[in-house]
Write a structure and sequence with these properties.
- This protein has helices at residues 2-7, 43-51, 64-67, 73-89, 116-124, 140-148, 177-181, and strands spanning 13-16, 56-62, 96-100, 133-137, 152-156, 172-174.
- The chain has a six-stranded parallel sheet.
- It has one domain: HAD superfamily/HAD-like (Rossmann fold).
- The chain is globular.
- 32% of the residues lie in helices and 16% in strands.
């Protein structure tokens, strides 16, 4: 890990999943309104730390609640606007949020583990070098997304043993985003 930490500078890009990494994931439900959104412990500190190191920080998130008709694009925009305001107020930044509203069954090229959101970020921000990028997520599709684009992958889980047979997808495992961020202090 130390070798990776020593390499990271403003030419590196950080990709973050949202639910389960930045905010509390609702079991068998979706964050549909801002009042359901709750930052995980240490996340605001983490993003502030990352903001001083990484050249670009993106959120890439599957949001099939929209495809299911449980929430709207406007609902998601309100959540993301408020989330970014809180992050900015705390001294952090997110350069852009990419989301896929499609159902898993749609086989959308934008839905992780497909790489559409990463390619869209590269189209929008030409300086992105996926070999100098890190994907942080809490699911196997997040790890596959990162691997397919050639990124380093950080798996967030307090139950690593549940996925120990898939370690080839994970460069490092941490129980939280803050546990990962503390390496950069």
């Amino acid at each position: 890990m130390e070798a990776l930490i020593n390499k990271v500078d403003n030419t590196w890009t950080l990709f973050l999943d949202r639910d389960g990494v930045i905010n509390t994931r609702l079991v068998d439900d979706y964050i549909k309104k801002w009042n359901e959104f709750e930052f995980l412990s240490g996340v605001l500190d983490s993003i502030k730390i990352f903001s001083s190191l990484f050249g670009r920080i993106f959120i890439v998130t599957n949001q099939q609640g929209i495809g299911r008709g449980i929430m709207t694009e406007d609902d998601l925009n309100i959540i993301h606007t408020n989330m970014i305001l809180k992050i900015n107020d705390f001294g952090g930044r997110i350069d852009k949020i990419y989301h896929c509203p499609h159902l898993k069954e749609s086989n959308s090229k934008m839905r992780k583990p497909e790489i559409g959101m990463g390619l869209k970020a590269k189209q929008d921000f030409k300086e992105i070098d996926f070999n100098k990028a890190i994907m942080v997520g809490d699911s196997i599709p997040d790890m596959i997304f990162g691997r397919r684009l050639g990124m380093k992958t950080i798996y967030i889980s307090d139950d690593f043993m549940a996925h120990k047979n898939q370690t080839e997808l994970m460069d490092y495992v941490y129980p939280s985003l803050f546990d990962f961020a503390k390496n950069f202090k």
